Amino acid sequence: MADTPLYVGIDLGTTNSAAAVFDGERVSVVRNAQGASVTPSVVRLDKQGRVTVGTRARRFLEQDPTNTAAEFKRLMGTGKPIDFPAAAAARTPEQLSAEVLKALRQDITDQLNVTIERAVISVPALFELPQSAATSEAARLAGFARVELLQEPIASALAAGWRADGDGAGTWLVFDLGGGTFDASLLETRDGLLRVVGHDGDNFLGGRDFDWAITEYLASRLAVVPRRNNPEHAGALRALRLAAEDAKIELSRGDKAQVTLAQPLTIDGREVEVDLELERATVEHLCLPLVDRALDVCVRLMTTHGLAAGQLARLVLVGGPTVMPMVRNRVAARLEAGIAEGHDPMTLVAQGAALYAATAGLDGRAASVAVPVGRQVWLQYPAVSADLTPHVVGKFVGADPPAKVKLVRSDGAWSSTEATVGPDGTWLTSVTLLPRRACTFQIEARGASGELVVVSPPQLTIVQGLTIGDPPLSRTLGVALASGHVQTYLERGAPLPARRTFTHHTVETVAKGSSESVLRIPIVQGELSQAHLCRLVGTLDIGGDAVLDTVPTGTAVEVTIELDRGGRLAARALVPSIGQVFEHVAHLLVPDASPEALDASLRDLRRQLMELRTDAFRHGLGQVIEKLDRIESRLSEAERDIDAAHGGDADAAQRARRALLDVDATMTEADLARKWPELDEQARHAAIAASSTVGMYGTEAERTLLQDVMTAMDKARRDKDAAELERQMRLAQRLSNAAFNRTPEAWEWYFEDAASEVSKCRDLPRAQRLVTEGKAAIDRGDNGELRRVVKALWQLLPENSDARKKGFDSGVR
Amino acid sequence: MSRALIDNPFFVLGLATDASRIEVEREAQKLLGMLELAFPGSERYATPLGPQPRTAESVRAAVAALRDPYQRLVAELWARHAPAAAAEPPVREVAEPPRVGLRRALGWRS
After folding, report:
1. Which one of A251, A687, A787, B71 has the lowest number of neighbouring Cβ atoms within 10 Å?
2. Average pLDDT of A96-103?
3. CATH of the domain spanning A7-164+345-359
4. The A585-587 sheet, strands edge to edge
5. Chain B nearest CA to A360, separation (Å)
6. pLDDT in tens, A21-40
7. Can you give the pLDDT at residue B87?
8. How confident is the model at residue A175 (pLDDT cuts 50, 70, 90)?
9. What is the pLDDT of residue B15?
């Protein structure tokens, strides 16, 4: 039926990709030309320049590895082209992903006979901004007019929750072990609303680690052992790895598998026969530590949210490796929960993406250019609704609208009351849905004398089912200031899309025409209020060669940060005094990972680790030492990947780069814990100050809130959670400030404080004038004027240069 | 702290503090639709500090806040204690009649 919308979801995976469609009632997985529900993310370019995708390309991975690319998803956003010597061509990871997307898009057309222009594509939860941008670009290259990105754990949660008829109450855990990453998400469904309670994961753990563990075991049993750090051995290892992958799948069912290669491998000039027997028990033994690592993450996540083993309502397993019986048993046993049946771990993410497309109202079909017949009406309604009686809002276009509107459900069993249309054409009514069904309503409009009016569109469809609402922002986003602090723009969990504007002031002059003077506005992501502890994700530069006029110190700059539903970033800086807008955000590319650079940072991190460790021992900080031990083992793993990077494995290089970044962050955290005594004392001072000011000047609500903050502070102190203590301390300070600002003396105090530092001010004559004005204002009792003076004085006070460096050289405050 | 009143999700959505989850979602979805079609009156909401401009972003932020149990508790607290904290007499010049539940949200018994 041409009128039914078709929602498309695509799981663009590291090893396999899949597509699913949702018609409002059923989700179905799209099969490819070979009849399979998943398509390997492998692309081959032959010497005629012909492109092969999927299973047929995967077959060439062994025979013709140089002209066949796999696992390019891990290189997304690096801008690094992959060479195809036979065709004498190179393709970027985006272009290769586009080929996979094109193939899936064609499969949908072949199977359903519709052209698809819009879809939802899933991305890993912790994809960096450039990687998301690259995914959107790939979709554009594949001919999609519009795509939305959705985080993979949310997709699998949505698909798993959709099927849970009522009995899904309680907390769920989605255990998503993909090709290269592991994600654990806790979620709950209540009243048909899905809520992601928490999320944790390991970006460096996946099925490929299983494959490598098996490969290395197989390699160790060969007559000549191939090594990962030798580029000459890459071919032999690749062949072994493919065989290991097949054996692993075979052992999901049988107890024994034979690993035999048709052709002997050539290692160091010698021919080596491969004919090994692999037992299920051996594979399980090899993979067990990896599964336990994933389970540790789950336990950590559950503990954070106050859940013990046995308290989960259900477990949902996602991803290829979870097909292994050993993984299923181990997970169910350790978490003491039943595994939800009836979910295909390989296509659940694609199914969730398709369901989400419906929630987002993203009909996949190519827009038809049918000429509207009748009176045009604009409609607003939820395409998917958890609510059984949602509202429908409409507006007739043009003058003289019909007088009444009624919605009639297509099964004829229900119709709405007649809504009266306002003089401007607007009307509002609500409809009654059937549970778990797609309901179509005819729009019946009548004129003033009761005659039927033909309207366009004549009907609307609403699906009743689980909704997730707006996707939440995964990490807090803000602007680093010259003081080294962060001005938070969008808090973690903020619903996307979101936009926020704040006014900052420049701390230095940007001279017109000077290419050297550049004002930086660094955009950072992270949960801590100190900029250097957050990740720099982009910068907005106001350069001297671009400004129309010199921008003096203290000029107001209105910065707007915008994120769309997929988490794509846009930022804009408006300088009102010269009426100029700057919007080019330099997105930091995922940096190149040369083995030499990796070696250097590894050495650097090892040295830092040593210092931290000595220090931790000296102060007897047991918890810190434990954290550092974990870092140590991560570094050893990274070292192995760097070895492989020396052997020419670009993917391992990227993996190592991210592992090192991760270690860096953990180390910073450990460092914060080391400064615990200092932080603890600061927090105590803040608490004392807040309780006295709030006690004296606070409102009842503020007092209650401060109570909560104090309780949270105590908990953070008990848990030795530095980041949380810092956050609560900030809250206490904010409450304290709010109460303090209500007192008449507040601004006098601020004035005294600023005036005492007047000698440090930039524009001394002006600062002195302001001080005189301020004194006069106090004498007159003019609080409004005093406020203006203080704010002007603050503009003139300098920023500390050390602080500024920590704020990524920010030029604003 | 006046932002805690001005941006209070219950005021943004014009709901009473005892509104159920479904009511919150339903009201937000309706308001988003009305804003999109520029319904008269939908672009402002009443607070104890006078009417405030309502945008699609503020509506989305309000729902998100009410979905989170802790944030909802804080919002309920502020909405209930609002009259005591307000420096100015509540709502005088509103373009439209106060929404159902608003009086209750402001602490009246009726």
Report:
1. B71
2. 95
3. 3.30.420.40
4. A486-490, A477-480, A518-525, A535-543, A585-587
5. 13
6. 998 888 999 998 888 999 99
7. 41
8. very high
9. 92
Whole-number CA gyration radius for chain B: 13
Is A754 in contact with A793 (CB distance < 8 Å)? Answer: yes
The class level of CATH for A167-339 reads alpha beta
Nearest residue of A to residue B76, measured between CA atoms: A701
Measured N-to-C along each axis, helices A700-719 and B69-85 cross at an angle, to the nearest 10 degrees, of: 150
Same-fold call for A7-164+345-359 versus A167-339: yes
Max mean pLDDT among A70-84, A289-303, A620-634, A660-674 falls in A289-303
Mean pLDDT of A728-736: 85
Q: At what angle do helices A207-220 and A280-304 cross, to 10 degrees?
A: 150
A chain contacts of residue B10, beta-carbon cutoff 8 Å: none
Is residue B41 in a domain? yes
- Higher-pLDDT residue of A506, A678: A506
Q: Are A654 and A660 in contact (CB under 8 A)?
A: no
Residue B52 structural domain: 2-84
Residues B21, A381: C-beta atoms closer than 8 Å: no
Distance from CA of B110 to the nearest CA of A (A): 23
Measured between CA atoms, the residue of chain A closest to residue B85 is A699
Instruction: Give yes or no for a contact between A205 and A182, defined as CB atoms under 8 angstroms apart.
Output: yes
Q: Is A299 helix (H, G, I), strand (E, B) or coil?
A: helix
User: Cβ contact (<8 Å) for B30 and A386?
Assistant: no
Tell whether A701 lies on the interface with B, counting CB pairs under 8 A.
Answer: yes
Cα→Cα distances B8→A393, A453, A742, B61, Å = 24, 42, 20, 10
Q: Domain extents for chain A?
A: 7-164+345-359, 167-339, 375-464, 595-674
Contact A190 B30 (CB under 8 A): no
Q: What is the pLDDT of residue B105?
A: 46
Q: Please indicate, yes or no, if residue B16 is contained in any of the structural domains.
A: yes
Identify which of B1, B57, B63 has the shortest CB distance to residue A498: B57
Does pLDDT of A445 surpass 90?
A: yes
> Is B106 among the domain residues?
no
How many separate domains does chain B show? Answer: 1
pLDDT at A62 over 80: no
Top residue of B7, B30, B59, B74 to mutate, by most chain A CBs within 10 Å, is B30
pTM of the model: 0.72
